[in-house]
Design goal:
By secondary structure, the chain is α/β, with parallel strands linked by helices. The chain is built from 12 helices and 18 strands. The strands form 4 sheets. The protein has a 7-stranded mixed β-sheet. The protein has a 7-stranded mixed β-sheet with strand order 7-8-9-14-15-16-17. Helix 3 packs across helix 4, helix 8 packs across helix 10 and helix 10 packs across helix 12.
């Protein structure tokens, strides 16, 4: 059975705090693992979350600010130390090549793994596999930044009642799926389109066209909400989003599950008594903006499943869940 989930390794912006590590997000997508924005301490967070170097197939860096990339050195060296048996591909802004080079070769180590550099220069498709297409879109930040989007190919959902009506059963079900027609019955006669799942990762940015394009129709949107709405001007000045802006983006894009993350240290730690401390104010502002889907105010080491619109789920907000790790 395929596994699709987001493992949150860190949620702090700029600097780690007592309860939040620098950024780090692992997307498990069937048999692959995509690591997004490994900040300082990511290697240790992987250990705590039960994520191994062998789980990594792609590393996607949105931009070269330290809280999104300082963990690259340790992660790359760990991949080589553990002799990961498959190719690992790294995507990052081409304009930050000098930073990637410095982090890749920050200290001496033995290279044992094929690490393919695939820098991003413009909007478009970065990779196509049987399981997904990986795309990038330019964002709006003081340094060049790209967001990432995974799109699963559309498929077909077999309808048992129509299969029975046409007398198709057993091995013939697989045959009509492979060949598209069986005894005058077409695949369209016994199935319906199943839209592929969509995932987007949107970090440091102001509102821009790229944000909307990445978020459109997502089953799971991971998006920064560095500031609360009362600090809107700080968000504009530093190239970030507020919780309310993130909620409006998700509302307008028809997002199924919204994950807010990348929180400024100006707000008190989770676990306190105020709304901001528990994450409640971030959730409240995203809801006030009109978002009605599932919502998670992320905490380190939380796991978030990727579900499509036809899968059962509870509507309970996950903002107050705490990891047992």
């Amino acid at each position: 059975m395929s596994v699709r989930e987001l493992v949150v390794l860190g949620t702090a912006s700029q600097v780690p705090t007592r309860h939040r590590n620098h950024n780090g997000y692992l997307l498990r997508w069937d048999g692959e693992g995509l690591l997004f924005d490994p900040g300082e301490g990511t290697q240790r967070q992987m250990l705590r979350a039960g994520v191994a170097a062998h789980d990594l197939h792609r590393i996607c860096v949105t931009h070269f600010h330290g809280d999104h990339s300082l963990g690259l050195a340790g992660v790359i060296q760990r991949i080589n130390l553990d002799r990961v048996p498959h190719e690992v591909t790294a995507h990052y802004p081409r304009s930050g090549q000098r930073f990637f080079d410095r982090l890749r070769y920050a200290t001496a180590y033995r290279e044992t793994v094929e690490l393919t550099e695939a820098p991003v220069e413009t909007d478009g498709v970065l990779a196509t596999t049987p399981s997904y297409t990986l795309e990038a879109r330019r964002l709006s930040h003081p340094v060049e930044s790209f967001g990432y989007r995974l799109v699963e190919p559309d498929g077909r959902r077999m309808l048992p009642e129509l299969l029975a009506e046409h007398g198709i059963k057993g091995p013939d079900v697989g045959r009509i799926q492979r060949e598209g027609v069986l005894g005058g019955v077409s695949l369209d006669d016994v199935s319906e389109l199943r839209r592929g799942q969509r995932f987007a990762f949107v970090m440091d940015t102001r509102l821009c066209e790229g944000v909307d394009a990445l978020a459109e129709g997502c089953d799971l949107l991971v998006i920064e909400s560095t500031f609360l709405d009362g600090d809107h001007q700080l968000a504009v000045d530093h190239g970030h989003l507020t919780a309310g802006q993130a909620g409006r983006v998700a509302r307008d894009a028809g997002v199924r599950h919204l994950v807010l993350t990348h929180f400024s240290q100006r707000y008190a730690e989770p676990g306190g008594t105020s709304q901001a401390e528990s994450g409640g104010e971030f959730e409240r502002q995203a809801r006030a903006a009109g978002f009605e889907g599932e919502l998670t105010v992320a905490h380190d080491l939380v796991r978030v499943p990727v579900r499509s619109g036809d899968e059962p789920s509870s509507y309970e907000s996950t903002s107050r869940r705490r990891t047992s790790r």
